[in-house]
Amino acid sequence: MTAVTSPNASTGYADGVRERFFTPRRFVTPLVVVIVLGVLLFWLSSIQLDSIEKRTLNIDYIVNRTREHLGLTIVASALVAILAIPTGIALSRTKSRVVRALVLGIANIGQATPAIGVIILLAIIWQTGYSTALVALVVYSFLPVLRNTLIGIQQVDENVRESARGMGMTPNQVLRRVELPLAVPVILAGLRTSLVFCVGVATVATFINAGGLGDMIVNGLKLQRYPVLITGAVLVACIALLIDWVASLAEDRLRPRGT
Amino acid sequence: MPKTPATAILQIARNTSGARIVLDQVTKSYANQPVAAVENFSIAAEPGELIMFVGPSGCGKTTTMKMINRIIEPTSGSISIDGRDVLSLDPHELRRHIGYVIQQIGLFPHMTIAENIAVVPKLLGWTKEKTADRIDELLTTVELDPREFAHRYPKQLSGGQQQRVGVARALAADPPVMLMDEPFGATDPITREKLQAEFLRLQETLGKTIIFVTHDFDEAVRLGDRIAVLSGRSQIEQFDTPANILAAPANDYVASFIGHGAAIKRLTLIPVTEARLGPASESSGGPVTVRATDSLRDALDSLVLTGLGALTVLDFDGVAIGSISMERISAVLGAQVPSAPTGLPPAAADRP
Hints:
heterodimer; A: MetI-like fold; 12 helices; 76% helix; 0% strand; flat; B: alpha/beta; six-stranded mixed sheet; 16 helices; 13 strands; 39% helix
């Protein structure tokens, strides 16, 4: 017999992915960010800054705050990835529903509690500063990665899993060669959520003296210097958008081909 | 002691053209169920035999099959392949030498067709060259052009093509035993028939020992060397060749499972040449003829279609070798019923 080729199958899939990767839509987010920052810069240069504002609205200060903010975000997200993904894998292996419900419940509490509450409570019982902020951020953004890892593994087609087993893969091989690769998109989506959470929540680090762009927002508010407040807020929003954008690129790049 | 199971598996693996499978008093019961899923199941499949497990949904046929490669562990009983106790072997190593095809195919969506087929060879540590050659060979065997299909992803294939890849993947390490769980169940009737025919041709050359689970009795008749008709708890109601089961169902259950038209189903198994052909002159001629390679069912079909009393039978070269009529077809069925009381018309003797 002759093999019938379905029309959509005639183009090479891998090539198709490459072709579609950089579409105009991809550049909407960075474009918006550039425009917003441009408008901000234009506005700041057109108004008269007083001495208090000048102390904050200069390159050194902004770069330092941004670096602190990004550092906190990225280190916290990396810690979440290192901790939550293995936990999620372990949870997917356990047959005990009680254990699963318990761990998810604890992670849920971490997220449900207002971040500002967690961070200040931690500061009171422990210490102020970077480490405390980091811990609070990890606690706060743990759940999305944990849950998505668990779901990502669970959603793998039962038949795919069974055929992997039926072909003689050990449970570890099934995990490494089949379940995890197929769970990658879902896990990455969780990581992306966590990253964006972190960018936002890292602003409260300022309350326990851990720096970040929260300094600008809070100072601007307290001293009623709106240019400072607005610059801080806009920068945080732009960072969140850019990080989300980079994560979306990674998601598309790392998604297993063929799915 | 640790060496024995490994060598046993190697011995099973080396025999690539069919092994003897014996299930003895195999039982599977689940703790939370009062009735066993499979109870005291015993069967022996000879090397190269294609055994069909037929039964309604939930009768335990799939469970029984899955105990052979230990996807499901039996509660008691013994299973052996070529005399080696399967339950004492390492299950992962064992499964690498048993082909496994399921209805939903279960191709790995993130791997190309070539990578899918290469899974077991990789697990067995084959060299790249050997694996690549094998992929080409297998894709050609299942009639998919390697150059066109090897680097595609499963999603880009039709259901029938995917099922072919499923069969190729199961054959990758040339296992002596194949387990197939309704492999053609999810395909449309035309594709299914094509796949069945290809599969039969393939099996003729490979001669694997195959356990094939289906709920479709017609499929069982078409493919099977022997059929085990199963009822609840995987009880064997009858285990015999398709022709014998159709001719003499062991009990009402088997008869009801065959359903209506047992005589017609039997005709599909019998070539025209089995009938005592009449002289070619009995046929009034005409454009419709029957070929010697056709089954009696094809002949009957043509007779019904034309409404003629007899049709000419042609041999391979198109030379008339005789004629076939309704009476002569009936006579074949009558002659095949061993317990048919003499004097009864053949059609009546066919009723259980």
